[in-house]
Amino acid sequence: MPGRRFETGRDALDFISQLSALTNAESVVGALRDKLASFGYHAFLITGLPDTGDRIDPLVLINGWPSGWFDLYVARSFADHDPIAAHCKQSIDPFAWSDIYRDELATKYQREVMQRARDFSMVHGFCVPIHNQDGFQAVVTMAGDRPDLTREARAAINLMSIYAHSKAKACSAAPSLARRLTTREREVLTWFALGRNTQAVAERLGISGETVEAHYRSAARKLSVRGRTHTVVEAMRRQEITL
After folding, report:
1. How many angstroms separate the CA atoms of 125 and 47, rounded?
2. Residue 134: pLDDT band with limits 50, 70, 90
3. Judgement on whether residues 136 and 54 belong to the same structural domain of the protein
4. What is the extent of the structural domain holding 119?
5. What is the mean pLDDT of the chain?
6. For residues 4, 242, 219 and 45, what is the CA-based torsion angle, rounded to 10 degrees?
7. 59 three-state secondary structure
8. Lowest-confidence segment of 49-63, 86-100, 115-129 by average pLDDT
9. Domain boundary residue, one of 173, 192, 224
């Protein structure tokens, strides 16, 4: 199992390296489609989530859903009743659809959404909610008929999804990539990216664990993100750190 964890972790980092060289949304879509297909997913979407009564299509960054399903989802306002979308706004952790959805506990409208998704071979899915300091921001959601939902696959997909979302935003909004972090903040995030915990980083840099955490929190604020993984990924996307 340790070998499998290394393999999926290396796979995620290789994918991030591949995405970093892409410059347009179409190439990101193609790369993400190929990578997720290797985990058994054929449908994916990177999007914000609308308020009740609003349309989802203006919030979509990358659309890899089957065209018929996306058209139906918009036409029937499924976003208003989608139990997976609703949970995304409440969770900061990635989750499989089966972790939170049960047919017997669902409303009639929730069951309709999930049943129609199955018509497009979207039977099992996985979601990565994206949050910043202000709360929910977006979701990377994917589905297939028999995808890989092992712990190792989930961890790799979580990392890749966070970076894919950042890359999709970069392609659509072209934000400035000027460096904002201090040298020490970059050092801390680099060691985090290499898998070191707070105490190991503290010993490596000759500072206290509290100081390590202070540098991490400062970096997260500057990058307008939330969570250690998201902070590391955003720092990589902005070329603040490299491995």
Report:
1. 15
2. low
3. yes
4. 2-173
5. 88
6. -60
7. helix
8. 49-63
9. 173
**For a pLDDT cut of 70, what percent of the chain falls above it?**
92
- Look at residue 243 and tell me if it is in a domain: no
In-domain check, residue 242 = no
Listed in order, strand segments (DSSP E) in the chain are 43-47, 60-64, 95-96, 124-132, 135-144
CATH number at residue 219: 1.10.10.10
Q: Which of 44, 121, 116 is nearest to 78 (CA)?
A: 116
Residues 107 and 206 in one domain: no
List, for residues 222-238, the tens digit of each pLDDT value.
888 888 888 888 888 78
